[in-house]
């Protein structure tokens, strides 16, 4: 892994959040894996985030994420065959560096959609980012002529810091397309498309999603049959993972790239837990990628959420552990074995608060907490267990705005001393002053 920042100013910009740094006067570049990218005011990847590239936990033997990945792949291999071979192809080593066109435009995500925001994504520059979902590869794979495929890999999103959130996690996304002769093999009189839609001239038809039951180009019969297949296949997957007795329910949802759309929830430990999102692929996506005469369904799920539920893993950071006490619990086991994680040991938590006055250019409503979380993660690394916004305050006389965050530190493999925590905490305070022009209280 080669990571080179082609100027000290760019390094500072990336580390201390481009949004609050002075832009360099000359063009600067960032080099990742022997490839150079021009840095701009969108650049907000940090050295800490870049360090996760290439870890590929979903492919690491004995990692619980890899075990769940294999269980999902096995389900699709067994459930769908074509002339004796698996109908689904698997792509689990695609580059996580994608274009905004791949990540957003190809998926019909509007320009003003919040998922495009710098506060949500890790941008290399305004045109390139670390993929925020595996669906970013959907169009390129469809364009290559594939019809049924699984996309598995690491995805990157700026988020809060706690036991269930991490800036890097792993997803399985899938697409299944069908032509008329496949979908209506037993009913050749039925059609996928409404008479007004001409598959030979798809761009002459404006597809709409105003009808909650279907896209305007599709017949109701085609949509309902695809919906039935999709839901049956995903319930089968949940049964394969959690057992046939697990309760489930479907919840209507909205995604820019599918319609209709649903989320699947299971009743787990006395709560309803979302396990995946899915829907009928927007026909405009298929038309742009090539298959004009097909209908498709798609779904996406997170491996961490499933692994933590299946194996009772309490902290998402454990997925990144190289400690033998953790990994041996999943070593050389039948992938369908029931495994319950047993804590290797329990180390005490250290808690420090940080309070600061914001500069006049910022307020408690405009300051981006994700900017602060990334800074904490860069300085504190994986010993930061959780960061919580504890208090917001506006001084009644001066009208100055103040924020207070609680930072919980805990090492997964040893006891932290308060002295070393204090040293890290002071470094975070110093970095916050330099990055955001705040005044520590």
Automatic annotation (TrEMBL):
<comment type="similarity">
    <text>Belongs to the class-II aminoacyl-tRNA synthetase family.</text>
</comment>
<dbReference type="InterPro" id="IPR006195">
    <property type="entry name" value="aa-tRNA-synth_II"/>
</dbReference>
<keyword id="KW-0496">Mitochondrion</keyword>
<protein>
    <recommendedName>
        <fullName>phenylalanine--tRNA ligase</fullName>
        <ecNumber>6.1.1.20</ecNumber>
    </recommendedName>
</protein>
<dbReference type="InterPro" id="IPR004530">
    <property type="entry name" value="Phe-tRNA-synth_IIc_mito"/>
</dbReference>
<feature type="domain" description="Aminoacyl-transfer RNA synthetases class-II family profile">
    <location>
        <begin position="68"/>
        <end position="343"/>
    </location>
</feature>
<keyword id="KW-0809">Transit peptide</keyword>
<dbReference type="Pfam" id="PF03147">
    <property type="entry name" value="FDX-ACB"/>
</dbReference>
<dbReference type="InterPro" id="IPR002319">
    <property type="entry name" value="Phenylalanyl-tRNA_Synthase"/>
</dbReference>
<keyword id="KW-0648">Protein biosynthesis</keyword>
<feature type="domain" description="FDX-ACB">
    <location>
        <begin position="345"/>
        <end position="441"/>
    </location>
</feature>
<keyword id="KW-0030">Aminoacyl-tRNA synthetase</keyword>
<keyword id="KW-0067">ATP-binding</keyword>
<dbReference type="InterPro" id="IPR005121">
    <property type="entry name" value="Fdx_antiC-bd"/>
</dbReference>
<dbReference type="InterPro" id="IPR045864">
    <property type="entry name" value="aa-tRNA-synth_II/BPL/LPL"/>
</dbReference>
<keyword id="KW-0547">Nucleotide-binding</keyword>
<dbReference type="Pfam" id="PF01409">
    <property type="entry name" value="tRNA-synt_2d"/>
</dbReference>
<dbReference type="InterPro" id="IPR036690">
    <property type="entry name" value="Fdx_antiC-bd_sf"/>
</dbReference>
<keyword id="KW-0436">Ligase</keyword>
């Amino acid at each position: 892994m080669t990571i080179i920042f082609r100027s000290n100013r760019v390094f500072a910009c990336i580390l201390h959040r481009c949004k609050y740094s002075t832009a360099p006067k000359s063009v600067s570049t960032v080099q990742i894996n022997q490839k150079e990218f021009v840095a701009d005011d969108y650049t907000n990847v940090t050295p800490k985030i870049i360090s996760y590239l290439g870890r590929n936990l979903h492919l690491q033997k004995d990692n619980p994420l890899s075990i769940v990945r294999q269980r999902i792949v096995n389900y699709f291999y067994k459930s769908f065959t074509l002339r004796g071979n698996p109908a689904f192809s698997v792509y689990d080593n695609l580059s996580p560096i994608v274009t905004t066109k791949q990540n957003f435009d190809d998926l019909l995500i509007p320009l003003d959609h919040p998922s495009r925001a710098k506060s949500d994504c890790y941008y290399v520059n305004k045109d390139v980012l670390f993929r925020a979902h595996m669906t970013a590869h959907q169009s390129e794979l469809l364009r290559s002529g594939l019809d049924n495929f699984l996309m598995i890999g690491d995805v990157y999103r700026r988020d809060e810091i706690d036991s269930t959130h991490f800036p890097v996690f792993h997803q399985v996304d899938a697409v299944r397309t069908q032509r008329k002769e496949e979908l209506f093999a037993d009913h050749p009189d039925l059609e996928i498309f409404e008479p007004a839609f001409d598959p030979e001239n798809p761009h002459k038809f404006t597809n709409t999603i105003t009808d909650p039951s279907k896209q305007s180009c599709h017949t109701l019969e085609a949509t309902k049959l695809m919906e039935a297949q999709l839901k049956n296949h995903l319930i089968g997957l949940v049964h394969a993972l959690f057992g046939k007795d697990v309760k489930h329910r479907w919840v209507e949802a909205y995604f820019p790239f599918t319609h209709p759309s649903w989320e699947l929830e299971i009743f787990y430990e006395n709560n309803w837990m979302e396990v995946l999102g899915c829907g009928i692929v927007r026909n405009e996506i298929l038309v742009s990628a090539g298959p004009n005469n097909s209908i498709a369904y798609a779904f996406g799920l997170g491996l961490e959420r499933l692994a933590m539920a299946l194996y009772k893993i309490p902290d998402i950071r454990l997925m990144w552990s190289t400690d033998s006490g953790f990994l041996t619990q999943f070593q050389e086991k039948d992938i369908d074995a029931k495994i319950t994680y047993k804590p290797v040991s329990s180390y005490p938590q250290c808690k420090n608060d940080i309070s600061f006055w914001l500069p006049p250019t910022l307020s408690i409503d405009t300051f981006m907490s994700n900017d602060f979380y990334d800074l904490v993660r860069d300085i504190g690394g994986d010993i930061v267990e959780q960061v919580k916004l504890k208090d917001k305050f506006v001084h009644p006389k001066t009208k100055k705005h103040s924020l207070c965050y609680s930072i919980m530190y805990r090492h997964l493999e040893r006891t932290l001393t308060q002295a070393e925590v204090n040293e890290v905490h002071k470094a975070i305070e110093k970095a916050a002053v330099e990055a955001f022009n705040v005044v520590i209280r």
